[in-house]
Amino acid sequence: TEYETILVERRGRVGWITLNRPQALNALNSQLAQEVTAAAVAFDADHGIGAIVVTGSEKAFAAGADIKEMESMSAADMRATDHFGAWDDFAAVRTPVIAAVSGFALGGGCELAMMCDIILAADTAKFGQPEINLGVIPGMGGTQRLIRAVGYYKAAELILSGRMMGAEEAERAGLVSRVVPASDLLTEATTLADTIASKGLPSLYAAKAALDAAMETPLADGLAHEKQAFAALFDTADQKEGMSAFREKRSPDFTNR
Ligand code: HXC
């Protein structure tokens, strides 16, 4: 497939998606939303892929939804086109997704990172929800996912003031799993993605689905989900292989079944 706003590459069992609108700091316009989603959905359908990495440039992961594209829209336009709807399919992929963030992750850029399962940050990363400065509010999940990541009070401060936070603060707050020197970001993302992609797909999918359930359900429902999902994995070849490999003191050879 030919993409114009992203670069897509398969490296081993990892699918790489690099946002590539440098002239606009990777602002997320509708074409980019469709392309990122199409690429992620294609990787998701490919059983040769066990992890996806989304990254941007050194200067910007993404500086937000494309303000110039939205500026003249009416409320009716927004609703009729479901302007950010393509992203729902991105958030729904079963494959684990890592956001490797360097530079600005603002507005929709921060929200895109939060649709991923893991956020790795360069020490240059800056996160924020500056929509309030534009007379709007986050529209791709920011008010909901940021609270779940950092708690109500920190999310409220960021969303109401529009202030940016650096990588260290974002790590302390629980948004970012790890901060690495900017020059190491892609190497660290590669190592992490390769590690994840070496596991069996049934257990990766089950783990991600259970993590998602934790975001969306009361504790008792989440625990019930986990119990069912855990039991179901005992019908997979990978469970037998993983456990016999342990007993035989060797590395497992997962077949993703
Ligand atoms: C469209 C953008 C853009 C954006 C940057 N650009 N962000 N274009 N949409 N979100 C463009 C600029 O217009 C400029 O192009 C080029 O990228 C480089 O940006 P500069 O501003 O010249 O760079 P710099 O001075 O380094 O400042 C970087 C920055 C600033 C601090 C990140 O660009 C900025 O504040 N951007 C907007 C951040 C923002 O408000 N994001 C939230 C968007 S709303 P030209 O051709 O003009 O030179 C959002 C809503 C989510 O995400 C969904 C609900 C509505």
TrEMBL record:
<dbReference type="InterPro" id="IPR018376">
    <property type="entry name" value="Enoyl-CoA_hyd/isom_CS"/>
</dbReference>
<dbReference type="InterPro" id="IPR001753">
    <property type="entry name" value="Enoyl-CoA_hydra/iso"/>
</dbReference>
<comment type="similarity">
    <text>Belongs to the enoyl-CoA hydratase/isomerase family.</text>
</comment>
<dbReference type="InterPro" id="IPR029045">
    <property type="entry name" value="ClpP/crotonase-like_dom_sf"/>
</dbReference>
<keyword id="KW-0456">Lyase</keyword>
<dbReference type="Pfam" id="PF00378">
    <property type="entry name" value="ECH_1"/>
</dbReference>
<protein>
    <submittedName>
        <fullName>Enoyl-CoA hydratase</fullName>
    </submittedName>
</protein>
<dbReference type="InterPro" id="IPR014748">
    <property type="entry name" value="Enoyl-CoA_hydra_C"/>
</dbReference>
